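Regression test attached.
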Amino acid sequence: MSRSSSSPSPLSPPREPAPALMSGAGLLAARGEQAHRRLGPLSRRLWALWRQVQGYLFLLPALLIFALFVWYPVVLGFVMSFQSVDLINPATWVGWANYRHVFADPLFAIAWRNTLAFTGYALLFGYVVPLVLALAINEMRHGKSYFRLAFYLPVMLPPIVTVFLWRWMYDPDSGLLNALLSLVHLPGRLWLEDPQTALPALVAVATWSAAGSTMLVYLAALQGVPASLYEAAEIDGAGFWRRLWHVTLPCIRPIMLLMLVLQIIATMQVFIEPFTITDGGPQHATLSILLLIYTYAFQNADFGEASALSVLLFLVLAAFGLIYLRLTSHMLQGD
Amino acid sequence: MVTEYNEPLLEQEPGSDQHRQRASADGLARSLLGRGWRWRRSAAEASSSSEASGERTLLSPLMLRRPLVRFCYWVVFLLLLVGTLTTLGPLYWMVSGALKSNVEIFQRPPTFWPAHPQWSNYSNAWQILQLPLYLGNSLMLAAGAVLLQLLVSATAAYALSKLRPWGRSAILFAFFATLMVPPVVYLIPQFVNISDLPLIHVSLINNWAGVWLPEAANAFNILILKSFFDTIPGELTDAARLDGASSWQVFTRIVLPLSRPALAVITIFTVIASWKDFLWPLLVLSNSNLQPLMVALYHESGLNANLPFSYLMAGLVFASLPPILLFLLFQRQIIRGVNLTGLKG
């Protein structure tokens, strides 16, 4: 890189002669054209080669980091799922034994059921709430920025803060929730100790902390709905609800679809709420797939089995990931 | 140069109806990630233009004059106002809980207002929880994350956008394909990897590098920066080259200064993400002198049952102050960033 800075002659020819250059740049380009003509074919090829090398030099840090900390571990995960790995003895090949053990584990079905239930509940609350909030806030002529701020604030809390705060609020004795219920003379509940309510209680925490960012995305999408469409619909005699159904929702449908897929992918990775609030209990009612993976690896020291379960989780998430990629593929065509 | 460069961009801003229509049809992400970088506009421009054309929503101004519609509007307003209690209420509960005495905090029924606010709880928690140590650790982890991520993603994005080496579409695909693989699915192999790196056989367990390096592989940063660098006209970088600037000089003197808004967004998001990070530091950093605040709070709450509960709440308040302050300071950038990526902040 330093070599090219020391070479005084202007070497790089613009790929195409740009007609409308900015003031000073036009002059420079003209000078470059002359220099370009003076260059021999050999030095021009050397220059092109040097530019390639520079390109790879700039890519080197990212390539190294991605190779070592993404591509390699992803492959390693597949390899380890066929090995017995405990980080003490050298890894040994065990074939499909890890997968057989994982499938035979009675917790496997429970964890999947809980994870899918969590995803289902999270979509039930978490998909509708941000959309309705965004639609309502977007109509507000007063306090719009206050609403946006207040509903987004929980997103800024670190997850550890959120879970400890909610664990206390769910406390049957000193918690806020039962205190509010008793204010209106309703009986309190053992929110986290009851297998019936533990999972929905965790979904509420997850929704509380994530709804704000989804709402922001919808708000931005709503601002992109062209005013002319509303006006045209109005001239055609469409009322409020028909404008909502035939103008607003179709306009933000791509974003709604994207958010749906992103939310499914995110909620299937639920970990921190069951890990810190209930530790998978009561009676495994909140055991999630990721928590089971964690248990295999860091309590049973069976990294092979944990990898096998990770691969299964990966296959499910990859299916949704492919949908996500299809929805956003135009982003990658920016080149 | 900066103004000359901004001028043509502003003409392409998503302001006209035609552009908006296209944006909504093709998906918002495209318009945000493509040419129409909303964040390039100053606040004044943004607000003035949105008032001029964008304030038309579902409700028409005419409708709002009807008494029934006005009534419904204020009902929804009140509902939203009550709704904000569900987000601000728990925050108040945390801040006020930290002020209660250890008897009052477990009192049944709980008090909604601390009877005798114990302001000393905050200063006691500061010392007992060793907050200077853990806040410092969190800060160091965040600073390292920012430096490394900016270095890695900016250089890669510059190469892909401006130097355009052979095979860049394959490299681009290899980077962006990682967006499809959530990090948790390779959490276990990553841990094995970190505890014994291939070829060099070094363990990064109980080393901040074990946290910094894996998070530096962030394809979203490259995606954002590359699409930002793409908006910098080739004429500009070529002109600098004709003046004898090297690729490195073009990178540091032209591309980076012009991309300050994008770099700012990435910096803010990296700081916040690093501050909130819990699971990976928990696994990598078992030495309590190296742990960030989130991991320390988790350990304190679990093992140390004799830690007064109000001190834990005070610790939570300290832990949430930095991201909330960052949000209040950089609200505009963060909101744009969220819109840009559709990611959870």
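Expected vs. actual: identical. Residues 131-163 of chain B form the longest helix (33 residues).
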